[in-house]
Design brief:
alpha/beta, four-stranded parallel sheet, Rossmann fold
Length: 347
């Protein structure tokens, strides 16, 4: 019989491959809040790198979007200010890994004094549609005043159509949008599928956003080695024992976890991690199936959101995505996962 997710504060060892979490629509919606490491993110706590002025500029622009600070003055003394272009309903933060986009997105969420607001990754929104159906999802979100979408990506034609329709309906009903990604809106989908076949949909969605570029270096790599940490068997056993004595640790063969992720809907991956203080993976090996690799990416995103350290044996986790995968259309998604895996294993 599959075990239920452990309550927070429980100690011991669990096996993720035995967990089968269940989530209803209301629970899924309620879970759309900033992840723990950004629970208190504010514009004040965002530290712009002076070497990259676009970071401070982006911060100021987003503060105005969130209703903080004065609008820049247009026109001179005794002159009527010129009317600027009509503000778009969304802002889109374009930049590389680790430049603070998610922090700023969470700052928008916390700063805007609206009653109904949601924060989730792109995959969480699309997974929600997959789990509940499109119409039910629209009904649940209708009337929302703000949607924050982290790591906005269009990985296949189905996602393109779903997100275009969903955001179009919500914008028409008055919702405002804030999104982050590593790809400018007009380039979404390039290298992943025949983007020209969906150009109209992609451009229509891009018209809902004002694009804000954020430059900089990945803060996760500024003081970290380039590879994920790999433990010997005895050190791994000690790490699991120590963690399980203080809290809750998981211990799974890497192959077992990968197989189990195919049996759990991605919208429920976050519940696989309930109560965990440490994730243990034995005998990590390179992945040769792209669907399995993408499911693992989604799992890594949830582990990173929850800031749960990972301890592993076998192949270094930053090497599980082969060269062919890294050269394909999902390259940025895999590189983001690698960046996060390095951080979690060296934590």
């Amino acid at each position: 019989m599959a075990s239920a997710p452990a309550a927070s504060g429980e100690a011991g060892v669990v096996h993720l491959a035995e967990r089968m979490p269940q989530l209803g629509g209301a629970d899924m919606i309620a879970s759309l809040v900033p992840p723990p490491q950004f629970a208190d993110a504010t514009f004040e706590s965002y530290r712009a790198d002076p070497a990259f002025p676009s970071q401070q500029s982006a911060k100021e622009t987003l503060m105005r979007f969130a209703g903080i600070g004065a609008e820049p003055v247009k026109g001179g003394f005794f002159r009527r200010a010129k009317k600027g272009p009509e503000a778009k309903p969304g802002v889109y933060l374009d930049g590389g890994f680790g430049v603070g986009k998610t922090h700023l997105l969470a700052a928008i969420y916390h700063a805007m004094p609206v009653r109904r607001k949601y924060f989730g990754s792109f995959i969480e929104y699309t997974a929600l549609v997959g789990a509940l159906g499109y119409q039910k999802t629209v009904e649940l979100f209708r009337g929302a005043e703000l949607l924050c979408i982290d790591e906005f990506e269009l990985d296949d034609p189905g996602d393109t159509m779903v997100m275009t329709r969903l955001l179009g309906e919500l914008v028409a009903s008055g919702s405002r949008l804030a999104a982050t990604s590593n790809t400018p809106p007009n380039a979404l989908g390039e290298g992943r599928f025949a983007a020209q076949d969906f150009l109209r949909e992609i451009h229509a969605m891009a018209e809902s956003f004002d694009t804000i570029r954020i430059d900089g270096n990945d803060y996760r790599h500024r003081a970290l080695d380039g590879h994920a940490a790999v433990l010997g068997d005895s050190v791994y056993e000690t790490a699991i024992a120590d963690a399980s004595a203080r809290g809750l640790a998981s211990d799974d063969a890497f192959a077992d976890l990968i197989a189990h992720l195919a049996r759990v809907h991605p919208s429920r991956y976050i519940r696989l991690l309930d109560g965990l203080d440490l994730i243990g993976l034995r005998a990590v090996a390179p992945l040769d199936d792209q669907s399995a690799a993408l499911r693992f990416v989604a799992f890594v995103d949830r582990a990173y959101d929850a800031q749960i350290p990972i301890r592993a044996t076998g192949t270094s986790l930053d090497l599980v995505f082969g060269e062919e995968m890294l050269a394909g259309g999902y390259r940025k998604k895999y590189l983001r996962a690698i960046s996060r895996l390095v951080a979690l294993t060296l934590d």
